[in-house]
Amino acid sequence: MKIIVTSIFVDDQEKALNFYCDTLGFIKKHDVPAGEFRWIALVSPENEQGTELILEPNNHPAAKEYQQKLFADGIPVTMFGVEDIQAEYERLLDKGVKFTMKPTSMGNVTVAVFDDTCGNHIQIIQQ
Description:
Blueprint: E1 5-10, H1 13-23, E2 27-34, E3 37-43, E4 52-57, H2 61-72, E5 76-81, H3 85-94, E6 99-106, E7 109-115, E8 121-126
Parallel strand pairs: 1-4, 5-8
Antiparallel strand pairs: 2-3, 3-4, 6-7, 7-8
Organism: Ureibacillus endophyticus
Domain VOC: 1-127
Protein name: VOC family protein
């Protein structure tokens, strides 16, 4: 068994698509109309056949509340791995990304957390 998709609730799919592709560098794999919303799947440019990230609309009240409570408490909704966290931190800062936690060493890993502008905190990690 393997993970083939995972999702992140977003408050604006178009804004999220722009941020995740233009700012973070993910590649759009699928963008299919689904009623009033879209099925948007992104992949890493380093593994285009790998796990897909779905930008899921938070229109359900439970999803919206879940997202808002995690954000208010500063809890990241997911984690992305990077090879060089300091370089990635500086690259994202140059693109205007707001970090809530600068790269911080925690034992054998270094982590940082940023605001994705769509209602989530995202953690990046260098192992």
